[in-house]
Hints:
The complex is a heterodimer of chains A (480) and B (396). Chain A is built from 21 helices and 4 strands. Chain A is mostly helical and 480 residues long.
Amino acid sequence: MAFGLEPGTTAPADPVAWAKAQLTSVPPIAILDPEGRPRTDLPEGTRLLGSGPELMQAYQTAFDVEDDVFARGKTLSPAAYNRLREERLAIPYWRMEHWKEVQARASTAVHGSAPVFERLWHFWANHFMVAPGNQRNDVLVGPYQRMLREHMTGSYRDLLWHAVTHPGMLVYLDNNRNTGPNSRAARSRWTRDSINENLGRELLELFTLSPKAGYTQQDVEATTLILTGWTVRRPDRWYQPGGPLGTHFDYDRHEPGGQTVLGKTYRALFRPSSKLEDLVTDLALHPHTAQHLARKLCVAFIDDDPPLQAVQAVQQAFVDGEGHLPTVHAALLQAGHDHLHGTRKLSSPEAWFLQLHRVTGAVLPQSPPLPSAPAGHKTFHVLADLGQALPRCPQPNGWPILSRDWLSREMLDRRARWAQLMSPPTLRRLRESGLSLKDLIDRQLAPDGADHRVVSAALDSQDPARALALMWLAPEFLWS
Amino acid sequence: MPMVYSGRRRFLQQALGGAAALHLMPATAQDRAASDGAQAPRLLVVLLRGGMDGLHAVPPVGDTDYARLRPSIRIERPLRLDGRFGLHPALAGLHALWEAGQLQIVHTTGFPYAGRSHFEGQDIMQTGLATPYSSPSGWVGRAMEAAGLVEGVALSIPMPIIVRGSPAAGTAYPNWMRPVSPVLARDLHAMWQADPAFSSYSERLLAEAMQRMGPQRNLRGDEFREQRSPAALARLAAQRMSEPDGPRVGLIDVDSGFDTHANQGADSGTHATRLADLDGIVQAWREGMGAHWARSVLVTVTEFGRTAAENGTGGTDHGVGSCCFVAGGMVTSARVFSAWQGLDKAQLFEGRDLPAAIDVRAVYARVVERVFALSPAEIQSRVLTHTRHAALADLM
């Protein structure tokens, strides 16, 4: 449930209590150095943006820059256009933006103070996936994902609400244009926009009930209508200075009247926006949601085929606590501990990569993807090479949570190649820190186990680099 | 690109000793595998995730309702097929195959699934079963297993479900990292062979390491990106599949991009760009297969089609029926097969979607029958349960 023990630290006497202590407050996130301090050697443009008006400014700037590059491109030679595009779009938006967010995520997991919280955040950011690649949304992705952290100590209802109504999600799943066919804007022909089911469907399918609940196409359509008008304001040419920026409920685009989802009719009595508030509340507390989430958490953290008792315990905690997340997370930790025997999970490429660094004190790739920066590996490129190209998740259902989906010849071969590459520099760092590789191996692998024998033999044959690579690749290390 | 994989299977047998390698193949399948070789047919499967819009790729130009349902996204200049249907202008390579009598299209087709969920749909399109998440193996994997194939390759990092179910299925993807050293591979094999999750891979990895496959030279960013483009992956697939004892099955996973809920575009635009990717795959594979083209076939797989009418944001939402391309030297006439009933609301599934009137699994079953020389009965029982359709009698 964490990323392993850092060298020079001792295992907590009560691991469950240690882990539970990380559930009730939100740890800071930043691009950290190996000592756990925010890095001070970062180039400009690497500040992590919040989700307020400055984010909408940045989003608008992304549009302005892209429009400008296209406009200038019309009079430039192909080579000059490519240079301009590289400098103004590719470097800042397609690379640096994602590099800084992935770097913050990775370094906070490895060097931060609450690795269990980070693991759970990775789960929720994956559950409520928002990835770049739609409506120039690069700058929205990281701030959206970090916003989710702030709601992990409250109820699932609030987390769901903030996920669904954040500009990151509204844009990623196209709801910013979802417009009621009988709305004032549609009737008056202020817009040609109408229905878009993208978010409505995923709200039921991925975020709450799951298809097992047996909802119908009519439920999807009614949910979509309730979502009409939930849009995003950025300071574009229609924006009136002083007006709100960010998430905006535009009643003129909202479908009036009542809509029925799962047999219940949602009506606007005094505030039309309350339809979505009520629907989100009902969905968050629906028994099928509790069942879906309990199972998903157990599959992600305990086993592809988790013990029924574990799922029931987490589900019960969800129901009893009305989705209070620290209660649900604590139940998950307890269930994971109670069912340690006979269950196992293969670390995802990202979790393995982070674990590899954490237990050996290996230095994360530091260098940003700038032409002026020193050459070197880039964290997000390495993750892509390992099969998990953060933050570019191909689909809204997130990265796989099943162990078996992380198994293929290519996946294993790539882990082995990366371990082989990382081993010599890590070994040098261990020596500099005066740490013993043998002690490290004894901590990671059961001394009487088969993995330990193979790794020790490599160490005995005076090949410590191979021994270290093997330790990272031992089944005991790959599975948790 | 270095020929890193050439003769891998031969080498696998040498490295592990003949007996060890033969364990990869069930004994009953060995006779069939004997026909495996230079003359054996090759199959490339292309997964188009996100829901390819059949009415965009193969617009029903002869249907008067088409333009009415799609005022802003109808195809203006389709390539000519048969008067009833046209082909999207981004599919020029497929159109050339049509002209050569090497493209068949099945329209109004899909899986027997109307849940409109990507993720259930993508499971069903790979397992071939009507219930989502009910099988760990895919129909291509099961076909490979039934035919006793010794090698198939997915050009991807993960192993897509569609090829699971056969120990012969492998993955390959362009990589810049130095290969694992033989001595590390030997120790890995020692550690991994006891773990059932890893054991089937450790033999292969050891064999490859012993072969000392050369590293990719250090590629510049652009070059490396280009190597991973859909067309480059198709070239890599062709390079391997056209070897005399190369893999008989290839798979390319176009893992996103067809899900165009907004601003889908028409002759050009987002959906057109994805179709151009598909066309790039077709052209590159065709060129790369060379003389083997005559014994090759490519099929496309997508989880569902999209709504018949455009939605309120210049796109289309999740639907049911779509179309399927069957192209290659093994195809001997240009035809569109369909159960077309028009786009009138009464003819649409639930009043909104092109119906999946033809079970697309029957299309794949026919392809499997031709490529793997399996009997229809064996396919029904072991590979892909499907409902036959009279319209498909002359397919392939």
